[in-house]
Structure formats: C-alpha cells, structure tokens
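Margin note: ligand = calcium ion.
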Amino acid sequence: MANGKILIVEDERKISDIVKSYLEREGFSVTVAETGEKALQLIKKNFDLMILDLMLPDIDGESICSSLREYSDTPIIMLTAKSSEDQRVKGLGLGADDYVVKPFSPRELVARVKALLRRTGKGEKKILSFNKGALKIDVLSMEVRKGGENISLTSTEFRILLCLAERPQAVLSRLHIVNATHGYDFEGYERVIDAHIKNIRHKIEDDPRKALFIKTVYGAGYKFIGIPD
Ligand code: CA
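Resulting structure:
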C-alpha cells in the first residue's frame, strides 16, 4: 500500500484540512505547516513528499523550494493560483516535480501524490512479483511480464492493474479504482472500469474465465488474488 510521510505547506486552513483528510484516508501520515518559517524548520525531518503552496504570508514557496533543493531531492508538488505557463515553468525550474493549479480536486491531488511517489520510487517496492514469478509488475518502467514475456498494457490498464496488485486480497470498488487511477469520477465509469478489467484479463490471465489474478466480487468490485512472492 502506498503510504508515507507528507508535509503540506499551506496557510489556508480550509485547503490543508481537506487535503490532509484525503491523504490520511489513503494511509499517509500528514504534517501541516502554515507558514514558510515553520516549513523550513520541518523540512529537515524526513518527509517522503512535500505539497507546497506558493503564496504564503511570510516566505514565498519558490524560496522554500530552492532552499530544500540545496540539500534534498524530496519530491515536491507545487500548489498555486498562479496558472500561467511562465509560472509553471519557473516552478519546475526551481526543482518542483509537479504543479497543481487552484482550484483543484483533492482526489486529483492524491492521485498525483501517489503517481509521484511511484515515479520517484519512494515508499514502495519497485517490482511486484506474484505466483512464483508468473506475473511481474515493474512499477518504475511500467512493464508487465507474464511468464517472462513482456505484456503490452495501455497506461490506464497499467494503473488499474497496479492499483489492484498493490493491495492483494483487498476488495476495491469500481469507484475506488476510478478515483485512484483517473483522479476523479465520471458518468459511466463503472462500465469503463469493467471494460479495462476485461482487457487486462485477456492479457495477463491464461484463462480469463478462471482468473488467477483479478477476481470479480459481485456487488462490490474487484480483488487481486495473485499471491505475492
Ligand atoms: Ca496561500
């Protein structure tokens, strides 16, 4: 399961509260700094990721980002109302890894947090292996191997498979899967998830009717039943 320690630097209590609760629901441990000064004290501790608002009452987010980058490669997602391309490029130039423009959906932010942690390989195993190596999922290169052979999945299929495989035996609802992989829900998502699962099964199961990896739990969702090595 994807969890880790996250520092939110944000002076608007309403925003930090909601982001904190979304992240905690996903198993992350969250600390909030309401000022730049507090953030600079806290970032010396080990965090797996920082969510950084650019407009703070004392020190601006850009300065915090560059100070942190002098000694640490902790992933940073910048949070800001500044939406012009210039600002975005500037933020990324200062060493931020991703950029979310306000107003944003908390679910989308959580999805980006997970994606960034996955990309940077923090807090998660990099290769998941199941059923004595019959199925291998390489989290960083997004490659899937079945019995040693490369399987070609679309990036959406890969995210769905990974979402399930990260929590073997847990029943995940279609809504959970769509939130975790798309960052938002949309009309008709149930059928979309079902269609993706069908495709994934055709690619990774020997016999899709006798699934060894993805099981349908009627009325509830899907469950990954591969046995971790
Ligand atoms: Ca602010």
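Residues 11-12, 53, 55-56 surround calcium ion (CB under 6 Å).
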